[in-house]
């Protein structure tokens, strides 16, 4: 008798095979583009005079998160500034297309961050390669473990990441709300929930004065949850029984706490900030959506001021991404903080000072350049147009006005290898194991799978 997981995996086979066929059909286009770019780079390099490195002291930089576009962007920035780049990633993603970038000097696979061997593996690479600075490009699951590793790695190199206490505190939605409130920074009414009964007994009607839009609340998991994070069902439901049933449908427990947070209607914004010793040195802000695939800089002084005050008050060092809602009356409310690199960093693709803003304390704050175009991922845009032909004109406009986040005329191999080695390999392995997957995320460089990483 076929088990339910196997049956679901069998049902995924046509989708997987069809996707592989579509990628194969796109391969000739990508080969021509990559070949033209390689030829162009050879000609330009042969004609260009040799330039001295922009930095006074070249360093060896280690970057994690090698499968993700944001790691490629940072690798290119450090390389352009004269540094040597070591890229690392877990074994599942050994074929990441970014390892083929001209900006990457060495590539290593390491155990999963949860592994007891993770820190030792990082130390081994740091010592072997003479790493000066480790910049974690964290997944949601790894920021805690990179903070744990920092205590050991700091004996050998600088680590641009927060200490474990700080990382865990700001990554916890309830603790973050408490800190923000104590600093007098606007935050929606937030309550820690460890048992569904707390939702049943919550006095929604009495909370109208502190809820920005009456008594509407949403339940959100404190640990990152790829399955439930998009569910913003408003509470309470029409009846108390419906509210109780909804709360019981969530995996809430003492060991898996959630928050009940006042719902704020308005425009959502995502941000990226890199700080050193409480000083914000890299900043960008974009309109946000549930599945973010496009980034365009917007100027929001209130949000920037909020983050600047928070970073300064806690004397933060590292990379911190915040989510905000701006209401119709112009007020901004911080929703959460994710202590890791945001993909919005891709907007810095042409900024000459990004590497120095990461590495040197006391640098002036930088934002995306005035000439920076909005970033997108070409295969995402093409897929959207194929799925929804009525949007094809809009998708073409995005491509015409923006910049592909992976493709670079002087470094074209990652664009070829991500789409025609890394993702096909993951699809093939998924097919062989009769696995399930919901979508391909070219930005993060993975298949979004149930119970995946």
Structure characterization notes:
By secondary structure, the protein is of the alpha/beta class. The chain contains 13 helices and 16 strands. It folds into 4 domains: 84 residues, no CATH class; 102 residues, Rossmann fold, CATH 3.40.50; 74 residues, Dna Ligase, domain 1, CATH 3.30.1490; 106 residues, ATP-grasp fold, B domain (D-amino Acid Aminotransferase, Chain A, domain 1). Helices cover 38% and strands 18% of the residues. The chain has a 5-stranded parallel β-sheet, with helices on both faces. Strands 10-9-11-12 form a 4-stranded antiparallel β-sheet. A 3-stranded antiparallel β-sheet has the order 6-8-7. The longest helix has 44 residues. The radius of gyration is 23 Å and the shape is globular. It starts with a helix and ends in a 5-residue tail after the last strand.
